[in-house]
Write a structure and sequence with these properties.
Layout lengths: L5 E10 L8 E5 L4 E5 L7 H16 L7 E6 L10 H9 L2 E7 L5 E2 L9 H14 L11 E4 L2 E4 L15 H5 L18 H11 L2 H8 L16 H17 L1 H13 L3
Parallel strand pairs: 1-4
Antiparallel strand pairs: 1-2, 2-3, 3-5, 4-5, 6-7, 7-8
C-alpha cells in the first residue's frame, strides 16, 4: 500500500493569503519547502481529507500534483509570528497537518492564455466532476504552470457531501452542474474519451488504498458516535458509487461544454 512521507515542520516562513483557508509556507526537516494546509483552518480536518483524497486520486489518474506529505507541528511552531490571526491558526493546528511540495517559480495558470492539451484538459474536468470540486474556476483556477506544464493544487473544496454528511448516496449520483464554471471546460473537447481512460486508471482498489491513508485523528465528527473506521468507509462508499454513476456527471460536463462553445 502506498503511504505518504511523514516529516516535522522546522521553520515558519510566511502565511499565504491568496486562499480562503490561510495556508502557510514552511520548511520541514527534509530541507524542502511546503505549502501547509492547516487542520485548525475553516473546514478543519475535512478540508485536509478532501485535499488528500483529491490529490492522490488525481495523481493515480496520471495528472500532475505536487507531492503530498504529512507534517507535524509542535507547540513551539510559529511562536514568533506577530499576526494574532496566524498565531491562533498555528495553535489550533498543532499535531498532524498536510503539506504540498512548494513549486518554486510556478505561476498561476491562465485558462485563456495557457493552452492545455485537449485530452488533458478533459481529464481534469472529469476528475473535478468525479470529486465534486467546486473550486477550479476562472476566478480561482487552483492550477499552476511549472516548467510549461499544468499542475493541480488545492482540492480542499472537493467532496461537497461531507460538509452535511447526509444523503451521501444521493450526492454520489449527482450530475454535478457546477462543472459549467470550470476554468478548462472550453478546452475540454475530449471528455468522453477522458472518461473511458479515467475509469481504467481509477479502480475500487485504488479508492481502498487512498482512503486507507486518512489518519484516524482526522476522522472524528463532533457530536457523532461514528468511529474513524465507519467514517472512512463512508468516503470509500461515496467514491466507489461515484465511479458507478460516472455516465451521469460525464454527460453533464459534455452538455455544459456544448452550451459555451
Amino acid at each position: 500500500m502506498s503511504e505518504l512521507r511523514h516529516q516535522q515542520v522546522t521553520r515558519f516562513i510566511m502565511p499565504l493569503r491568496e486562499g480562503g483557508s490561510l495556508p502557510v509556507l514552511a520548511e520541514a526537516d527534509d530541507d524542502f519547502k511546503y505549502v501547509v494546509k492547516m487542520r485548525g483552518a475553516g473546514h478543519g480536518a475535512k478540508a485536509l481529507i478532501a485535499e488528500l483524497i483529491g490529490g492522490e486520486i488525481a495523481r493515480k489518474a496520471g495528472l500532475r500534483v505536487p507531492e503530498l506529505i504529512f507534517l507535524d507541528l509542535d507547540e513551539d511552531f510559529g511562536r514568533t509570528e506577530p499576526d494574532e490571526e496566524v498565531q491562533d491558526l498555528l495553535k489550533a493546528s498543532r499535531g498532524l497537518n498536510l503539506g504540498m511540495h512548494f513549486l518554486s517559480g510556478a505561476v498561476t495558470l491562465d485558462p485563456y492564455l495557457n493552452r492545455i492539451d485537449p485530452l488533458e484538459a478533459s481529464k481534469i474536468v472529469w476528475i473535478d466532476s468525479f470529486l465534486t470540486n467546486v473550486d477550479r474556476t476562472t476566478r480561482n483556477t487552483n492550477m499552476l504552470m511549472w516548467h510549461s506544464e499544468p499542475w493541480l493544487i488545492d482540492h480542499g473544496a472537493s467532496l461537497m457531501f461531507h460538509h452535511s454528511w447526509k444523503d451521501w448516496e444521493k450526492s454520489a449520483a449527482s450530475p454535478f452542474p457546477y462543472i459549467k464554471d470550470h476554468a478548462l471546460l472550453h478546452q475540454a473537447s475530449n471528455i468522453e474519451e477522458a472518461s473511458r481512460l479515467m475509469l481504467q486508471k481509477i479502480t475500487p482498489g485504488d479508492i481502498d488504498e487512498i482512503t486507507a491513508m486518512i489518519p484516524d485523528e482526522w476522522l472524528k465528527h463532533e457530536g457523532s458516535d461514528e468511529t474513524p473506521g465507519q467514517i472512512r468507509q463512508v468516503y470509500n462508499n461515496f467514491l466507489t458509487k461515484r465511479l458507478e454513476y460516472s455516465p451521469i456527471f460525464t454527460k453533464t460536463a459534455i452538455d455544459a461544454r456544448q452550451n459555451i462553445i
